[in-house]
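re: that chain from earlier
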Amino acid sequence: MTKLFARWITKFRVWSGAGSKYFDRSQAPKQNYWLHGVLLLVTFATTALTGLFWLNLWVPFRSDLDFSLIFMGFPYAVALMTIIGCHEFGHYFAALYHRIKVSLPYFIPYPPWSPSLNVGTFGAVIRLHQAIKNNRQLLDIGAYGPFTGFIASLLILLMGVMTLPTVDYIYTIHPNYRFLSEIPSPLVSPNGDLLILGENLIFRILTDYFLPYSIPMSEIYHYPLLLAGWFGLFFTAMNLMPFGQLDGGHIVYAVFGEKIHRMTSYLTLAACFLLGFYGLIKIFMGQFDGSQIVVLWLIWGAVLLLIVKPWHPPVDQFMPLNKRRLLMALVNLIILLFCFNPIPFVLV
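^ sequence. v structure.
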């Protein structure tokens, strides 16, 4: 028994890097815990305020903030930051597994006064302090972030379903709905500015088979856990796009190499611009049916082209991948298909 325990301790030290020169205290990068902590707290505050915004408890520049209600924004803040944290720690622990120096996640706050699609955060990032040496390391680090973020999003959505309030809850937000036979769908909603979140395959399954009563996608954002789960799926899909140094780009490069990666990057870029120009044509034709929101794909395409860049830095070694890693790459492709929506939200 003693020998078995010692063997497991040795394996843990090797896995965690405790016995590696990479994690020697004198050589390991210093973590700025104060900076990580301050960013974490500020991001929690901005997401909590955003949670109040989605509950119609605070409208930036139009109403005073009642700080006694700030705790009402906590469910959204905790859920969204849990999803983002799981995503980044998926990358983090994959890097530790390969004994690569890496920083803790830096959470990035976002001012909570966006007029329409308010999130409260730009997400989080980690910083690698060593180069990735081979495609096996690249695949693991790239794939486990979106995979763990996706699992966290599903769990948050499941919690949202299990704790869903009765239909009377929506009547407190929209008292006029009480006199209708059901919560109105966007097609019969009153005229005016109305935000409708896109329905990907996950949400189609959720709304058809798991929710105890029908909730149109124009009302999902009044349910904090469902909204946080929707954002989690949305960001997972965006990260898994097979482009440049996005997570999807890392996976494609690790599996297929530089040539296929370059081709998928330019195809992804072309798809973004085609969707964007489709929305632009809709605007010029005066067809304001909500689909003009895909003009934002032009902005995303510009971000990909000018900031993310369509190429990928080479790795020193390109090695055969085992079945487990190939399966993880396939799982992430399936996740992309289930999370992606070409029109993620519309305004009508």
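The CA atoms of residues 171 and 178 lie 6 Å apart.
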